[in-house]
Amino acid sequence: MQSTHEPTMREQFGATVTELLGRDPRTALVLADIGTAQFPEAARAHPDRVVNVGIREQLLIGAAGGLALTGMRPIAHTFASFLIERPFEQVKLDLVHQGVGAVLVSAAGSYDWPAGGRTHMAPGDVALLDTLPGWHVHVPGHPAEADLLLRHAVAADDTLQYVRLSAHRNAVAQPVVPGEFLTVRRGSRLAGVVLAVGPMLDAVLAATETLDVTVLYAATVRPFDAAGLRAALGERADVVLVEPYLAGTSEREAHRALAELPHRVLSLGVPLAEHRHYGSIPEHLAAYGLDAAGLHARIAEHLW
Amino acid sequence: MTSDTTEVRGATRTARGGHDDHDGHGGGHGGGYGGHGGRGAGYADLPGLIALMAGDEKHSPAAHSTLDALWVLYDRVLDVGPGTADAPERDRFLLSKGHGPMAYYAVLAAKGFFPVELLHSFGAYDSPLGHHPDRLLVPGAEIGSGSLGHGLPLAVGTALGLRAQGLDGPAVWVLVGDAEFDEGSNHEAVAFAGAVGLERLHAVVIDNSSATHGWRGGIAARFAAEGWSTATVDGHDHEQLYRAFTAPHPGRPHVVVARTEPKHG
């Protein structure tokens, strides 16, 4: 689509974290084979702070926890299936329970490699983190946003930060502020609100072009910007959530944000059922009803 | 970095020729470690301290099996004490085998990390001393544990973190059980630590033959195959433990397998 090469989010991750490793001796990168190709220079420059444990994901998180116990700021990276789901108890105990922070950076969360099938899909990652206290969750929709959010996450003291990178992206970066929803399109006072998360923004904008809606953009979903959602409401509290992971993941947050108001929430995202097809990202988005046409139909039905 | 108290005890040990430590198993030291400003208690005091938690003289096998290894570590090997519990240069001891922590609490109390009186509260609602340790509650506890197989990976990360900060002095110790060793996460850590020669990493395996399917050829062989330095000793013999704990192991991590009486004997 582009004539000149723009970095992917994963390439941006390589450039950004390489720079941060060079600048801050507290940072350490832990890998489990996946992603090592992004860090040849950093691995040479900082052999003690760029650690590849091999294909050992329990150790990936355990070692990150140990690094943090010594005062380091660990950044751990692999595919979401192997970063959150496989070592979930390590995430719970070796990070959260120990009272230490870390930056977990995933790739290929939901549908990035459809031909790879279910084994490489983890649309439940954000919902899983919702069962644990303290996580900040960022879902950039563009490599430039990934750069900004990664810097923010690494710099955020000893907090628990999750940055969810994807091959699915929007055409242009938004001027995101970590933790805040951004108003991208303002509807009338009678308009409902559509909250587009990360890579879903372009499809949401296309889907709602002919509709009177306010479009909010979230590149940080936890903590959920409840005040930002309420501020976007007109005279009706009708909300549609469009998320690039498991449908309904943020529904409870939306209900909580709107608890004082009569309200309706429609949650769109990746369906719970296994989708036993291969193919491409666009094919999967269409099958999930997350392309512009599918979104238009369901948003229009809910808000009108 | 050695505390005054430890130096005094070290001198005492030297005077005794270092042979009567294990005579004290079951109680026979006669207050040899007394008189340290109320802070220090001796090996002979440990059964009494455990009884404060157990409520009687019945000690759980898990508490018994670790007692001697823990005592020798904290009394003679680890460079850490109440005054250095947060010092970057301290040695780290990670109790991975978090069930049966009474021996651990008794040793920490004996060494002055927290008041002996706290032991009475073991397991109570407001007590810092749970049936599994929580590092945010227990003074001196480096990790919270209880779910098996977390300590070795955390110890690997701790050793990596110290190395990355140029802290080459501190030793990192982790204690696991032979049944705990069933957990696959340990094998991830053992293989990696051996491959990268994580010299400051030390493991103690308390082997009371409780692993359901056993370890054919012995546990030490699992570590040796991954390039670790190994020693297998009588887990109640203080002098054997001490020698194994302090054996040089340049360029490799080190494991001490401490064999104790079978749990289901």
From TrEMBL, chain A:
Signal peptide: none annotated. Residues 7-172 form the Transketolase-like pyrimidine-binding domain. It comes from the Bacteria. PANTHER family: PYRUVATE DEHYDROGENASE E1 COMPONENT (PTHR43825). This is Transketolase family protein. It comes from Kitasatospora phosalacinea.
Automatic annotation (TrEMBL), chain B:
Residues 17-26 have a biased composition (Basic and acidic residues). InterPro entries: THDP-binding, Transketolase_N. The keyword Ribonucleoprotein does not apply. The keyword DNA-binding does not apply. It comes from the Bacteria. Pfam families: Transketolase_N (PF00456). Residues 59-260 form the Transketolase N-terminal domain. Its cofactor is thiamine diphosphate. Signal peptide: none annotated. Residues 1-33 are annotated as: Disordered. Keywords: Thiamine pyrophosphate. Coiled coil: none annotated. Belongs to the transketolase family. This is Transketolase. It comes from Kitasatospora phosalacinea.
